[in-house]
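Quick one, probably user error.
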C-alpha cells in the first residue's frame, strides 16, 4: 500500500476518534444545560403557583367556600401536587404581607353530629394521626385595635348594608346556639327568630333591589348551613317531628364567630357596651373568655387595704355615701 494511502487512513481514523470523543462529551454538556433550564422554569412555576393559590383563596373566601386541599391540588397545582407544602407556605407569606390574612384549617365535624353510617366509616378509617378537615378559610391577622368597622367595613358582595345585616344575623344565631349549650331545637330557634322579627323573612343580601328587599327565612338558613355557619341535624327516628331537628354551630361559624365575638355581642345587647361586673362573671363562667374589668372610680382606688379599715371608714362616714356604680363611659367592643 503506498505511503500516501496509509497517511490518509491514519488521518481518517484520527478524525473518527475525535468525533467519537465529541459525541461522548456533548450529551453531558447538553444535559447540564437542560437541567439548568428546567430548574429555572421550576422557580418561575413555583412563583406562579403561589400567586395562583392566593387568587384561589381570595375567590373562595369571597363566596364563603372552604378552601379544600383537593381543590388546591386540582385547580392550582395540577401535575405539581408534590409541591403543596412549598406553594402553601409561599401563599401564606404573601397573604400575610399583602392582604393581612392567612389560611387556617377549619375544625372537623363533631363526631356527635355524624350519622350511624358516617360514624362507621370514620371508625374504619381511623389512624394514629389526629383527624383533619383538609379545609381552610381566610382570617385576619391584623392587630386587635385595627379590627374595627371603621377600618374593616363589610365587603360589598352585593351591598355593604346587606352584607352587614347578614353578618349580624348569623352572628346573633351563633351566639344564641352557643349560649344554649351548643345546640338548639328547631321550635326554640323559631321562637328566637320571631323575637328578632325574622320568623318569615330576613333582610336581603341586596336591600337596594326594590323587587326583592327581603328573603325567605328558610332560604337564608339554608345559605348559612351551606356556607358552614350552622349545622342542621335531623333525627331519622322521628322523621317529620320538629323537635327531632337540632341546630348547631358549623365549622366556619366556630372560627369566624369565636367566644370573644359572642361575648362582645352579649355586652352590646345586655350591657349597652358598658362594663358590668355581674355580666362579666357570667360570660367568664359560660364562655371562658377574658374578663374585662370595669374601670375603678377614684373612691375605689383609695379603698382601704383591710376589711377592718373598711368597716372603720364606713362607721366614720355613716354610710351616707352611695356605692359607686358602673362607669358610663362606653368600653371598646369585643
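Nope, works fine. Designed sequence:
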Amino acid at each position: 500500500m503506498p505511503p500516501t494511502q496509509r497517511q490518509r487512513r491514519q488521518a481518517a481514523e484520527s478524525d473518527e476518534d475525535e468525533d467519537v470523543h465529541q459525541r461522548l462529551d456533548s450529551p453531558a454538556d447538553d444535559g447540564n444545560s437542560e437541567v439548568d433550564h428546567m430548574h429555572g422554569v421550576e422557580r418561575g412555576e413555583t412563583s406562579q403557583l403561589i400567586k395562583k393559590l392566593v387568587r384561589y383563596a381570595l375567590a373562595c373566601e369571597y363566596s364563603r367556600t372552604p378552601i379544600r386541599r383537593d381543590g388546591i391540588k386540582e385547580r392550582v397545582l395540577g401535575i405539581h401536587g408534590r409541591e403543596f407544602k412549598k406553594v402553601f407556605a409561599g401563599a401564606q407569606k404573601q397573604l400575610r404581607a399583602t392582604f393581612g390574612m392567612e389560611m387556617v384549617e377549619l375544625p372537623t365535624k363533631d363526631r356527635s353530629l355524624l350519622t350511624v353510617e358516617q360514624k362507621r366509616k370514620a371508625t374504619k378509617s381511623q389512624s394514629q394521626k389526629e383527624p383533619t378537615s383538609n379545609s381552610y378559610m381566610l382570617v385576619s391577622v391584623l392587630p386587635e385595635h385595627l379590627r374595627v368597622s371603621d377600618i374593616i367595613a363589610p365587603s360589598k358582595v352585593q351591598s355593604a348594608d346587606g352584607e352587614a345585616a347578614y353578618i349580624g344575623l348569623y352572628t346573633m344565631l351563633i351566639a344564641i346556639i352557643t349560649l344554649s349549650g351548643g345546640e338548639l331545637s328547631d321550635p326554640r330557634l323559631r321562637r328566637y327568630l320571631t323575637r328578632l322579627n325574622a320568623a318569615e323573612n330576613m333582610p336581603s343580601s341586596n336591600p337596594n333591589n326594590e323587587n326583592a328587599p327581603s328573603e325567605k327565612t328558610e332560604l337564608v338558613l339554608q345559605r348559612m348551613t351551606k356556607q358552614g355557619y350552622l349545622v342542621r341535624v335531623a333525627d331519622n327516628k322521628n322523621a317529620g317531628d320538629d323537635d327531632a331537628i337540632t341546630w348547631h354551630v358549623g365549622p366556619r361559624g366556630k372560627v369566624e364567630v369565636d367566644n370573644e365575638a359572642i361575648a362582645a355581642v352579649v355586652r352590646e345587647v345586655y350591657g349597652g357596651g358598658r362594663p358590668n361586673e355581674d355580666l362579666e362573671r357570667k360570660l367568664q363562667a359560660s364562655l371562658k373568655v377574658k374578663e374585662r374589668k370595669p374601670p375603678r372610680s377614684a373612691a375605689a382606688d383609695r379603698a382601704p387595704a383591710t376589711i377592718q379599715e373598711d368597716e372603720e371608714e364606713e362607721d366614720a362616714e355613716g354610710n351616707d355615701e352611695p356605692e359607686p356604680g358602673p362607669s358610663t363611659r362606653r368600653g371598646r367592643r369585643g
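The longest strand covers residues 135-140.
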